[in-house]
UniProtKB/TrEMBL annotation:
Ranges annotated as spanning the membrane: 6-23, 30-48, 54-76, 83-106, 112-132, 182-204, 216-246, 267-291, 297-325, 337-359, 371-394
Pfam families: Na_H_Exchanger
Domain Cation/H+ exchanger transmembrane, chain residue ranges per copy: 19-394
One GO MF term: sodium:proton antiporter activity
Gene Ontology CC annotation, any one: plasma membrane
GO BP terms: regulation of intracellular pH; sodium ion import across plasma membrane
Protein's name in the database: CPA1 family monovalent cation:H+ antiporter
Function: Na(+)/H(+) antiporter that extrudes sodium in exchange for external protons.
Alphabetical list of PANTHER family matching this protein: SODIUM/HYDROGEN EXCHANGER (PTHR10110), SODIUM_HYDROGEN EXCHANGER 7 (PTHR10110:SF86)
Length: 524
């Protein structure tokens, strides 16, 4: 990477973070605002090229790993059939539908390249949809399906893309050979992912150092992706497998590792996602300049047709699969409203653009420019059309997770009660073994009992929304409010003593960290 490109990326990152900050403050979907800002700025600034290797080898692995790490393996297992039908079946269906339509519209374009375009724009990116869905209370099952689809569909699409491009360069297109390559790549990704997951789990059992463990976690997605891709296996699947396995075992790590890990990956996700969505919009000038020798109205018609086929094919697949699922098992099928939500959540992202930019230079420049333009318009079209209307659609269909949230609070309260009883029983056992405590020990034991009781009470109070009878403040809410004010007063004393040179900075940071952990517990 040359200094100019590094400076461009730094400026893009700074500007993108500023736009994302505005979006977060206003409660707007940050990905959509970033894309729109990129489109507006693109004609006014020098071209910022989208490097495919940068996206596929630097941005994609950590984003995939973080999403898999934060996902629930058990929930994904419950919806594995829906995820497989979307991440494999729908990608194949979209690739075929788009490929055939493009071949009819542009008969001079080789069939293999038409299918390559289908593979490029087949996989949706669920970042925007999941962000909106979580904010508006989309049911957990629908969110899990969207996340699971986004974790695995890139592997299917990138394998189909390689087969189609290879056929375009070699002159033949063998679908059976392509399916065989996909099966081998997927199997290789699973094997490499599991091997790395087992090795890393063993390593983490022997480290017990939160700083070392989280530093290693930053390297894991790159190691898994490179290890798989170096043997022509699916790097996407390898990264997802490692992330799911280690995320499911995170409870075995120390509390320090879990606390640091959450902060590390929130920052990493925020930085990478803001950059990639800004980069999408900034490609406007580059993409338009590559189109030449075509009638503008014809090109606009091609773009509209591909966008329409991409959106419609997802609806056709989702509703067909939903109908067939209801015939087999009505309980496991999504409702009609959920099917509409899943059908409309097909926003494309940066992986599609990276694949289009990665089309080999051996492909004729005219064909390459057309594929890149159609990819760009489809990505932008789905993000701006579907993304901007997605919140209104969720509200209009009244798809809500309110019942799930109540059940979650009820389950948490019951679990807290069971944990309280187990903790108090263990305390009583230890006291009995120790013998009659003295006065100071009695005070400590009483404090432990009170702390357990307060935590259990908080969980039950949450069922009432944090208010008591007549809207009065509950004891736990009162405790948290007063303790937060006390913590702020204590911090001011430490800062004043530091400024008066009566307390060293290092000592102040240590005591501040203790207060911060206590406030984090209060917020929880």
């Amino acid at each position: 990477m040359n200094p100019t490109m590094g400076l461009q990326l730094l400026l893009v990152a700074g500007g993108a973070i500023g736009v994302a900050a505005v979006a977060r403050r206003r409660g707007w979907p940050a990905p959509l605002l970033l894309v729109a800002a990129g489109l507006l700025v693109s004609p006014l600034v020098p071209a910022v090229p989208l490097q495919p290797q940068l996206v596929l080898y630097v941005f994609l692995p950590p984003l995939l790993y973080s999403a898999a790490f934060d996902s629930s393996y058990l929930r994904l297992r419950d919806v594995k059939r829906a995820v497989a039908l979307l991440s494999v079946g729908l990608v194949l269906f979209t690739t075929a539908a788009v490929g055939l339509v493009v071949h009819l519209l542009l008969p001079q374009l080789p069939l293999a390249l038409a299918f390559a375009l289908g593979a490029i724009i087949a996989p949706p990116d669920a970042v925007a949809a999941v962000a909106v869905g979580r904010r508006l209370g989309l049911p957990r099952r629908a969110l899990t399906i969207l996340v699971g689809e986004s974790l695995f569909n890139d592997a299917t699409a990138l394998t189909l893309y390689r087969v189609a491009v290879g056929a375009a360069l070699g002159g033949t297109l063998d679908m059976w050979e392509g399916l065989g390559d996909f099966a081998l790549a997927a199997a290789g990704g699973v094997v490499i992912g599991l091997a790395l997951a087992f090795a890393l789990a063993w390593l983490f059992r022997h480290t017990r150092d939160s700083l070392v463990e989280n530093t290693l976690m930053l390297l894991i997605p790159f190691a898994a992706y490179l290890a798989a891709e170096s043997v022509h296996a699916s790097g996407v699947i390898a990264v997802v497998i490692v992330g799911l396995y280690l995320g499911n075992r995170m409870h075995l790590q120390g509390f320090g590792t879990r606390l640091v890990s959450g902060a590390v990956w929130r920052v990493t996700d925020f930085l990478l996602e803001t950059i990639v969505f800004a980069l999408i919009g900034l490609q406007l000038t580059t993409v338009i300049q590559g189109i030449s020798g075509y009638d503008p109205w014809a090109v606009a018609g091609y773009a509209a047709a591909v966008l329409a086929v991409t959106i419609v094919s997802r609806f056709v697949w989702v509703f067909t699969v939903t109908y067939l699922t209801k015939l087999v098992s009505r309980n496991s099928a999504p409702t009609s409203a959920q099917a509409v939500i899943l059908g409309w959540a097909g926003m494309r992202g940066v992986v599609s653009l990276a694949a289009a930019f990665a089309i080999p230079p051996d492909i004729p420049a005219r064909d390459r420019a057309m594929l890149l333009f159609l990819t760009f318009t489809t990505v932008i079209g789905t993000l701006l059309i579907q993304g901007t209307t997605f919140p209104a659609l969720i509200r209009r269909l009244r798809v809500s997770s309110e019942r799930e949230e109540y059940e979650d609070r009820l389950a948490e309260a019951a679990a807290q009660q069971a944990a309280l009883e187990a903790g108090v029983a263990e305390l009583e056992r230890l006291v009995a073994e120790q013998g009659e405590p003295d006065e100071i020990q009695k005070q400590v034991i009483d404090q432990l009992r009170e702390k357990s009781w307060r935590r259990s009470l908080t969980a039950w109070e949450r069922l009432g929304g944090g208010t008591g009878q007549g809207g009065a403040e509950t004891p736990s809410a009162l405790y948290r409010r007063l303790r937060r004010d006390m913590l702020q007063a204590e911090r001011q004393v430490f800062v004043r003593l530091r400024d008066e040179r009566r307390l060293d900075d290092e000592v102040m940071r240590d005591v501040m960290a203790q207060l911060d952990f206590e406030e984090a517990i209060l917020e929880r």
